Amino acid sequence: MKQLASIFVFIIVSSSTWGHSINKSISMWEKNGAYIQATLIFTPKEAGAVVASGSISAMTLAFLQYSKEKVILQNNGKPCILSQTNPLPANGDFIRLEFLFHCKNIANPKDKPLTQGEKSSTDDSLSLTINLLMDSVPFHTHFVRWKTANTLQEFIFHASKRTHEISFSKQAPPPSYDYTLIGLKHIATGYDHIVFLTLLLLIAQGIKPTLLAITGFTLGHSFSLGLMSLGVLSVRGEAVESLIGLTIVIAAAEVCTKGKFLQITGWILAFLLASIGLVTISGAMKSVIPTLTYFGMAVFVFCYLHPAIAKRETSKHLLVMTLVFGFIHGFGFAGFLQEVGLPKESIVPALFFFNLGIEIGQILLASIIAGVLLLVSKTLFQANPGQVPQFLASVMAAAGSYWFFTRAF
Q1: Three-state DSSP state, 377
Q2: What 3-state DSSP class applies to 367?
Q3: Across-strand partners of 122?
Q4: Taking the CA atoms of the chain, what radius of gyration do you get in angstroms?
Q5: Looking at the predicted structure, is the pLDDT value of residue 227 above 50?
Q6: CA–CA separation, 26 vs 157, rounded Å?
Q7: What is the C-alpha separation between 167 and 175, in angstroms, rounded?
């Protein structure tokens, strides 16, 4: 009864939970003499956190009033004058605003970087502060692209970094810290990844197997993350998100069942996947996953959970499993990173630091999860600590099933 109740609670909680979600907004800035023009773009969902929901035009006007005091531009410590604020026509389902600032003492009117040894006659440095939505929307991130005649600078604003210094005489350094922090935040709020990481620890059960599992998962997702982010491969994001849910179901089945029961579970899952494939062929249901993929998944699940294969050498099996599943999860990371956006002039450094943030977060989470599992087994399940993996895996199987079906259809 305790297991059943936990499953239903988890399903209810997960109904509003998506493993990969980011609250972001974007603005494009351009300098023209002493004037700075900015176009700010938001989704109605984000704006709805601070203004009343309604039509795009009504929300645009309300959000314009909210935004006026949240964007501050300074030159040499003195505020630039916000001379114009205009609502722009909606582009699709996006709220668009236009700001025009007047900064009297901006140097280098031709927007050209100064040569070595050359000095500017006036102060060409600006300070931009953005407080939009950061106190109302968790993990909101604002991306600024600042264009001059010869340079494009990109900045990331978030709750712990709301001000950036902008100079026209030199190119901004790659946002290494920002992308590391984004990677950390992503893994910390990617609930499906946390669930899968927990299942890996339950399967590994030991320091050496755990290190092997994390290594395989890291190599797998780093490879697919790099391939997709660099444009070598392209996959449909919704299909990947659904497959991540399936990897959770498969891993949970391996924790919960052994021997003949593992084989029966493999048959059931394979039958369900093949049946869904047949239904999509008939046109009765539409799925973001290609029909043939369902049959391929059915064969994979049947083979993977077959007892003859389950008896393979543990370390090799663990490494292969985590490599394959990590490869799938890496496409999810890449989809998130593409949504965030990579700086065009420093794609590789940004990709490296984003992945670094994920790895740091993964190590921290694995340590925390291992500690919690040990604590739970010695307190709540003290009489029978062996029930902990089965209990947690059953709950996570329900969550994985929910994510698989809701993302696929």
Answers
A1: helix
A2: helix
A3: none
A4: 25
A5: yes
A6: 10
A7: 15
